[in-house]
Every structure is written in C-alpha cells, then in structure tokens.
Amino acid sequence: MLKNSVNALRSSKQIYDDLVKGRAEAEAKLQEAVAAGRIGDIQRYEDVLADIDEKIKDSQEQWLSDWSDGLQKAQDILTRAVEDAVAEYDKLLSPVYGSLDYLSEAYDREKEVDEDYVQDYEKLYQLNKLNRDLTKVLGDTDGLKNKEQLIKL
C-alpha cells in the first residue's frame, strides 16, 4: 500500500524533472532562434515553452497530491499499528488490572486524591503561617490594651 504511494511519488517527480529539462532545452533553442532571427521558430518555441510551463504546473500539483496521499497512507498505517499495540497491551493487562480503561480510571482517581492532598496541605501551611505571624505580632506588641485589640481582630 505505502509502496504504491512511494512509486507514484517517484514517477511524478521524474515527470517533473523531465519537463524541467525539456524546458531548459526549449529555452536554449528559443535563444538560438532569437539570435538567428528566425521568426517562425521563435513563435513555435514560445508556444512550446508555454505548453511545457502548463505541464510543469500540472506535474507539480500531481507531485504534491502524491505526497499528500503517501503521507495519509503512512499516517493510516501508523494509526493502525498504534491501535493494534493498544489492543495487545489491553489484552495483556486484562488478567492483572481488568482493562486499560479501568487502569486509566484508577490513575485518574489517584491523581485527584493527590491534588486534593496538595491543596489541603497548602491550606494548612497558610493557616499555620498566619498563626505564626499573629503570635509574633502579639509577642512584639507592648501593652495589654494593644494586645486585646489585636486579638479582637
């Protein structure tokens, strides 16, 4: 399948290269005709060049289309290979963990628990920090009346 795409790509590239080479030859013959002043040949080679330019444009489009087809087929092959690998992995895991979906859900639950723990820990840390700051301010404050006002806050 991919081999056909590669062959088509090579073929379209060869056609393009041949057209570019033919254009260079026609351009050289046109220059000779211009230098010799052969009006009939000049018009004929200009027509040939216009025709070759159109064919070059078409061959470029075909070459790009072949590239796109080849890349799509390669992507399809890769996608199938990954899907097959996941299915095989799931089959191997099922006796141990149940299924890949179950393992994924268990991982997500563990992740949520860890996030909750971190959030709770951060809140506890902030609360302890505020308590230490308040204790320090109370310790640094002179006078019973000022301390009572701070405690009310």
Coarse structural class: mainly alpha
CA(first)-CA(last) distance: 78 Å
Low-confidence stretches: none
- Overall 3D geometry? elongated
DSSP strand (E) fraction? under 5%
Structural overview:
- This protein is mostly helical and 153 residues long.
- Helices cover 94% and strands 0% of the residues.
- The protein is built from four helices and no strands.
- Helix 1 runs antiparallel to helix 2 and helix 2 crosses helix 3.
- The protein is elongated.
Could you name the key traits of this structure?
4 helices; single chain; mainly alpha; 153 residues; 2 domains
Topology diagram in text:
Elements: H1 2-36, H2 39-97, H3 100-140, H4 144-152
Helix pairs in contact: 1-2, 2-3
Write a brief caption for the model.
It contains 4 helices and no strands. By secondary structure, the protein is mainly α. It folds into 2 domains: about 1-95; about 100-153.
